[in-house]
Amino acid sequence: PDKRNLYLTDEGYIAPNSTAAEGMSDGDLQARERSHREKLEKLKNPNMFVSMTRLMIRNLPADMTKGQLRVLCTKAVRERATKARPKIVQCKILYADQGNRKVLKSSERGFIEFSDHEHAMCCLRMLNNNPEVFTPQRRPIVEFAVENTLKAKLSKQKMAENALKGKANNNSNNKKRKGEERENGPAAKERKKASEEEEEGSRKETRDKKQQQKGRKGKKGRGDGGEDAKSEKSEKSEKPEKGEKR
């Protein structure tokens, strides 16, 4: 099995004497030959392989941004496969520092990585050597990128870790937002209102009990006074009047 994807080595290569090379500028012809020689030299190392999803694009305009490169590649895929929904995993443009500003390197290279091999192939075949994309004298040179096995593994591990961190942060933010919604949402307000009503009812019940206890005490006091008066009256009636003989 071709684990290094060597069958993709010549994908995008245009021979100098081929029909596709007609009208191509000498600069582009030389750049293509140089790029192809570099690729073959790299692939002599058994740790190097041809990526199935990552493209290298040369001859980028000096003022092109990563956002513009994304749009360009996505549009190219959709023009060839109208129902496709290409997903770009990574977009990178090589820069060199010059003073306080960044400019594209002299090679003016960029990399675009798709999640799907077919989308990468569509992008290559739509952009490579297309005189209408940039200028007829500086056409896009597109080919599948050569990568190092060890570096590719480390890169995938880093991307997976970043994805997990992003997912964890999203879960934390979602929990925080849900907690705030529970605290400030309609349901929370209803619970608060019910709790306040329950407390008010409890206080009212306590007040009513106190008033009832006071009422019972007052009645008891008045009842004791009446019995004393009745007893006193009875005693007086039993005493003989003056001059009455017993």
What does this structure look like?
This protein is 54% helix and 15% strand. The chain contains 5 helices and 6 strands; from the N terminus they run H-E-H-E-E-E-E-H-E-H-H. It has helices spanning 26-42, 66-80, 117-127, 149-184, 186-238, and strands at 48-58, 88-93, 95-98, 101-104, 110-114, 141-148. Strand 3 and strand 4 (101-104) form a beta hairpin. The radius of gyration is 46 Å and the shape is rod-shaped.
What labels would you give this structure?
single chain; alpha+beta; 5 helices; 6 strands; 54% helix; 15% strand
Short description:
The protein is of the alpha+beta class and 246 residues long.
Q: Average pLDDT, to the nearest integer?
A: 83
Given the C-alpha coordinates, what overall shape results?
rod-shaped
What pattern of helices and strands is seen along the backbone?
HEHEEEEHEHH
Q: Count all strands and give the number.
A: 6
Strand content: 15-25%
Helix content: 40-55%
Rg calculated over all Cα atoms: 46 Å
Largest sheet: 4 strands, antiparallel
What is the SS-derived class?
alpha+beta
Strand arrangement, largest sheet?
Answer: 2-5-1-6
Could you name the ranges where pLDDT drops below 50 across 5 or more consecutive residues?
A: none
| First-to-last CA distance | 144 Å
Number of helical regions: 5
Write the SSE topology.
Layout: H1 26-42, E1 48-58, H2 66-80, E2 88-93, E3 95-98, E4 101-104, E5 110-114, H3 117-127, E6 141-148, H4 149-184, H5 186-238
Antiparallel strand pairs: 1-5, 1-6, 2-5, 3-4
